[in-house]
Amino acid sequence: MVRGYRPVINTLAKGLDIRLGHRVVEIVRHWNRVEVTVSNGKTFVADAAVITVPLGVLKSNTIKFEPRLPEWKEEAIRELSVGVENKIVLHFSEVFWPNVEFLGVVSSTTYGCSYFLNLHKATGHAVLVYMPAGRLACDIEKMSDEAAAQFAFSQLKKILPNAAEPLNYLVSHWGSDENTLGSYTFDGVGKPRDLYEKLRIPVDNLFFAGEATSVQYTGTVHGAFSTGEMAAEECRMRVLEKFRELDMLEMCHPMAEQTATVSVPLLISRL
Question: What domain range includes position 63?
């Protein structure tokens, strides 16, 4: 992604009513509607909801579901695992590394293994991205951004002893960020593969999407996108089906001819 994901997000967001800074704290489902309450106390009402929050957030129980989600859904949330992989972006004045996609950091233990992603190949900018994962990534998150950047640079010096100091840096904190609490979903040891599908299956008028619900492309952006499209279509069909049931009731009701027709808008919330 030469210019990052922002152009993609901006394109997909055109025409949508997106509310930033609205952290969901409670989701109440009824047979004919969903009530979503955010941290400032405001409540949004919709016919259905598509829930795409990261698995780490679902695991933290910071969102209360009323009534509780079924046991099989809670089991999927509980048993799937969340991993952490961070990015420490180092910007240099010039390129001094070989023209390869990756620079691997070899270690005597799995803990210390990592790599640098060469963004110069894709963007033309003198940028390397250090990509620590697992326990190493979690430990680096405990450092200050400056210390994390220095650690990344020390790893680069092991590969290229004459490496120049970076001009500036950016550090992600996916494991501790309250909006993510992790980077990607993975299989726990000895856990069944059907947990991904269980997490995806709708509960009444609640639909679930995101990389953690993708059986084939877990942990990827395209996995998240494809499950989002699937959940949106299922949600649309469910809402239209509900309206058809209401129409049938109206037609069969003896007072139907005396009842004024009410136009109900199709409202689908994306969380």
Answer: 16-82+182-249
